[in-house]
Structures are given as structure tokens and as C-alpha cells.
């Protein structure tokens, strides 16, 4: 099992190119199940979750070719050979539930294992099931599997209001309704950029979706979809994560092609903390001294609010603020598991329920720490970049699910970081 070793203190300068969004790609890929024509995705991130999705789609009959160092992917589902998503694959990644809608839409039947739990919260699939019910499907749970069937003539357009904003369930709604008979309207839908990216690609494939970027999506069902070529949207969470690095330790880092509209609420908080963020030359530049960081009060919310997936990383920065900050987590339970690990490095964090109070300290100290989930992994890397001495981070396999080539990217802007085999 690998570990990452970091010696803190180096200021950072240079350029970091951000990959395509993991959370977008994981929703785009199952769309291949909706058509017998090839679907080409570019700007695909090279991550373990992408490999898992490839494995899942392959088990259903999809043929996949990876080109251009795996950043281009051609998926062909001309003949689906199965409608069963097995537990052995689904248990690895909760996004596997996204094959449910496309299988129902195209095959009229689906058997999908219930995903397992998650370190940052239970994230049940009940809303996904309510969505397919609204489109006329029936289902039963048998031996840990969802057995779902569409009406004899296919899914039927319907209306559904999400009880709360759910990105995954909104994706299921889009992937299910595009081939339904009639028109579907989904209200209180998620507005995340990844949702818009999926809708835009489906429209390229011949779908008729309106309301993109709003909380009400209207889908006029079509008889069939065709192939398309689509570039995966930039990963706003990876972007925000790397933007915190020069803010932590000081430096000047440029992010080509970065768009402020993807992370507006996050940039507002960085600016409030005293970090200089500017749009220039078609990208974003972050300049900071690593000193005089102002405390913040942060509340996570669905887009366009502050992203829950950047809460852990921002907390690392607030450990060094001149005063007390608060982070209120409203999306997931159990998402402060990084706090005890940051405390091992000298941070002072009090957690009560879904609110963490961070008391800024002058310095952090290198220590052996353990990553508890994907975003916590990067939080510890950020803390280590600023810490005095050496930090060793274990369980970094979490990192491989959502960040590609972390060591190369950080070394490219001056960090002293290596990845080692921990045997």
C-alpha cells in the first residue's frame, strides 16, 4: 500500500492544468447504454473510479477503447449482453447506480446491486427509485438487488419534485427520461455544472432537454439517440483543491482554462480570507503570501453554494487563520473525519454535530496521518505543504479515486513530495 511523504515549507509557483471532472465523467459514461452508436468522450480524467465504471459497462456489453493516453474514450453499446450490475463491481463505487436508468430506458429491465455504505454518509438510493417510479417503472428489492421493469411500451413521461437537491438522482432522472414516451418535468433538481454537462451531451445525442442550469428540467422523450463527441467539463473540485495550495504556503500559481463560474462561491470565500484570485489570459491566477489569513464562516450548500467537496480542503487553510472560523456541513454526515488527523499536526478544531470550529494556529507540524476519504486526503496534503518538517500520509488509495497525477502536479510547482510503497 502506498504512502505520500511531504516536507513542508516550499513556496509554490508555476502552472497547474486541471483534468476533466470525475463526477461529470461518471454520469456521462453510462449514457452509452442509451444508444447503439459510438459515444466519444474527451478530457477524461485518469482515475480508479473511471476504471471501475469501464469494468461495470464492460460487464453489460459495452466495448471501450481508450486513446490519447486514456484521456479520450470511445464507448460502443451496440449490443447489450446483460442487464445485471453485479455487487462485486457496484460495491466499489456508489455512482454505479447510474446504470439503472439507461438500462430501463433501453432494455426495459434492470437488475442493479444496492451500493454499499460510504465513509462520509449513507447516501441512500430511495430517491433514484422514486424517480423511476414516476416514469412508470416498478421495482422490488431481492437479495440486495434492485429488480426494476419498465411498462410494456417503455418508460412514460412523468412529473417529480425532488424532496431535497440530489445530484445523483437528478442524473438518474435525465438518463431515464430521455427515451420515455411523453414529456417529463423534474423540479427542485440539482443545478451543479456536472448536471448541465450531462444534459448538454444528451442534447448532442438527440435528446430534448430544456431548463439547463435551473432547478426545473423538462425532458421531451425521443424515440432514439445517436452518437456524439463531448469534452468532459473541468473538475471544479480539483481546481479548488489546488487553488488552496498557494494560499496555504504562499506563491503564485496559474490555472489555464479555469472558469470562475464553476466555483464562484468558493472563490468568494478565498477572497474573503485575503487571497488574491484574478481572471487573466483565459484562466485563473492565485497569489498569496501564506500569512494574514482571515477567518471565515462557511456553510456547505448545493450549487451555486459552497461545495461540500471543498470543505475539508478549506478547513486546512483555516487552521492557519488569524482567529476562529466555523464550517457548517449540511450535505453529508460524518464529513469531519479529517479533523482528528489535522489535530495530529497541531490544528485546534472542535466538532459539535455538523459544525466545526477551527481556532487558527501559528504553525502546523509534520506528523504521520491517515486519509479517511477522498477529499480528506487532499486536505492532509495541503496541511503538509505548510507544516514544519515531514508528514507521511497513509491510505492514499482514496486519492486515486478523484485526483490524477497529484505528485507530478505539485512537484511541478515546487512542492517537496514523493509517493512511496509502504511495505
Description:
With 423 residues, the protein is an alpha/beta fold. Helices cover 29% and strands 26% of the residues. The protein is built from 13 helices and 24 strands. The strands form six sheets. A four-stranded mixed β-sheet has the order 22-23-1-24, with helices on one face. Strand 8 and strand 9 form a beta hairpin. Helix 5 packs parallel to helix 6. The longest helix is centred in the middle third of the chain and has 14 residues. It is elongated and about 65 Å long. The termini are close together. About 1% of the residues have low confidence.
**C-alpha Rg (nearest Å):** 22 Å
Runs in which pLDDT lies below 50 for 5 or more consecutive residues are 117-122
What does the overall shape look like?
Answer: elongated
The total of helices stands at 13
Placed side by side, the strands forming the largest sheet appear as 22-23-1-24
Distance between the termini: 7 Å
Number of strands: 24
What oligomeric state do these chains adopt?
A: single chain
User: Which percent range fits the helix content?
Assistant: 25-40%
Largest sheet: 4 strands, mixed
